[in-house]
Design a protein that fits this description.
10 strands, binds adenosine-5'-triphosphate, Rossmann fold, alpha/beta
Length: about 280
């Protein structure tokens, strides 16, 4: 377990929180007085139809977008005006809907980069600027990178350049790189997009294990509703910028407003047998 993950916030203080967040784009209200809490060592899901405001909320939480009203807190402290970099220093990391990788770096080098951003920043820049490649790494770095390569099932491609990797694999590389920074909270934007069923199941199991082992908290935006209901502790449902429901997966499944507005068949897929 990392030093960062060991320092847990009090049980009542969320790692990350949006409180009364409203975002207006001209006349359009993209988010209307939205509250979301991401407690320590938990997985929170954010679902909703296209245009519901999920990406806008991610932008507000990560610091790319300033809300029209409302507050963002990390471990109880107001970070609404803090830059994305300042939030990253506090332990917030994110992945993107379209993985952003360096085409000529190998899979392993991406994870090393993530590790060195947190643990050996000076070395990162001297290596890159002198063109000397990565010098012999310390044992702790090798151990951590090996663990992430194993956890994300990237052993077979770890020495391959990112260019040409299938989308699903690129996504796993991005998740591994983000985790190498040892974040307290990781925002995952559509983590299952581009993954097949087996890869999605593996990723869900890996993420659950990481939460249990390292105390990281996850907030994920997903279109794969069965995945969200299967792996999250709490789920928020957005519709037209309004949070129409928040609760455990069971509560969300049973919520008539959610069924009426959005989930319907997607919920049924997780609870009922396929018709013959
Ligand atoms: N920069 C912007 N300027 C104007 N309108 C925007 C901007 N960004 C988002 N919107 C609008 O805000 C609303 C919420 O969009 P957002 O992208 O947050 O939804 P979403 O739930 O992430 O959708 P999707 O699932 O399709 O990614 C939409 O009506 C969208 O058109």
């Amino acid at each position: 377990m990392t030093a960062v993950a060991e320092e847990k916030a009090p049980a009542t203080t969320a790692r990350l929180e949006a409180r009364g967040v409203t975002v207006r784009f001209g006349g359009l209200v993209a988010l209307n007085d939205v509250d979301v809490q991401v407690p320590a060592q938990s997985i929170v899901g954010l679902v909703g139809p296209n245009g519901a405001g999920k990406s806008t909320l991610f932008g507000v939480l990560s610091g790319l977008l300033k809300p029209t009203a409302g507050t963002v807190l990390m471990d109880g402290e107001d970070v609404t005006s803090a830059s994305p970099q300042a939030r990253a220093r506090r332990g917030l990391a994110r992945t993107f809907q379209h993985p952003e990788l360096f085409s000529t770096l190998t899979v392993r080098e991406h994870i090393v980069l993530g590790y060195r951003i947190r643990h050996a920043k000076r070395r990162l820049w001297t290596d890159l600027l002198t063109g000397g490649g990565f010098r012999r790494p310390p044992a702790a770095e090798t151990e951590r990178v090996d663990a992430l390569v194993d956890a994300l099932h990237l052993g077979g491609v770890q020495h391959s350049p990112a260019a040409g990797l299938p989308l699903g694999t690129s996504r796993l590389v991005e998740v591994a790189r983000a985790l190498a920074v040892d974040p307290r909270v990781l925002l995952l934007d559509e983590p299952s997009s581009g993954l097949d069923v087996r890869e999605t199941e593996e990723l869900a199991a890996t993420l659950r294990q990481l939460v249990a082992d390292h105390g990281v908290s996850l907030l994920l935006v997903e279109h794969d509703v069965p995945l969200v209901l299967g792996m999250c502790d709490r789920v928020h449902v957005l519709d037209f910028g309004i949070c129409i429901a928040a609760g455990t997966p069971t509560e969300i499944r049973d919520d008539p407003a959610v069924r009426a507005a959005y989930l319907g068949t997607a919920v049924d897929e997780t609870t009922e047998e396929e018709p013959a």
